[in-house]
């Protein structure tokens, strides 16, 4: 997933938030926790210097 996001040059928080919303809308509620965890990992891999304080908050 990191490679796909990097190749599409998705890096701004707004872009990742839009992509996350898309994944959440396309998948059952039972998978949402896992999807959010993966997106948080992606955020940290793409923005290691920013840390947890600036990680996008999951939307419900």
Q: In terms of topology, how is this protein built?
A:
Layout: H1 2-7, H2 13-26, H3 32-46
Helix pairs in contact: 2-3
In short:
Helix content is 58%, strand content 0%. The chain is mainly alpha-helical and 60 residues long. Helix 2 (13-26) runs antiparallel to helix 3 (32-46).
Word description of this protein:
Keywords: Nucleus, Repressor, Transcription, Transcription regulation. Residues 1-45 form the OVATE domain. InterPro entries: Ovate (IPR038933), Ovate_C (IPR006458). This protein is mainly α and 60 residues long. It has 3 helices and no strands. The protein has one domain (14-60). Helix 2 (13-26) runs antiparallel to helix 3 (32-46). The mean pLDDT is 84. It is globular and about 30 Å long. The longest helix has 15 residues, at 32-46. 58% of the residues lie in helices and 0% in strands.
Strand content: under 5%
Tell me the distance between the termini.
22 Å
Shape: globular
* Average pLDDT for all residues: 84
In total, the number of domains comes to 1
Number of strands: 0
Radius of gyration computed on alpha carbons: 11 Å
How many helices in DSSP terms? 3
Unreliable residue stretches: none
Largest sheet data:
none
The quaternary organization reads as single chain
Element order: H for helix, E for strand: HHH
Structural class: mainly alpha
- Approximate helicity band: 55-70%
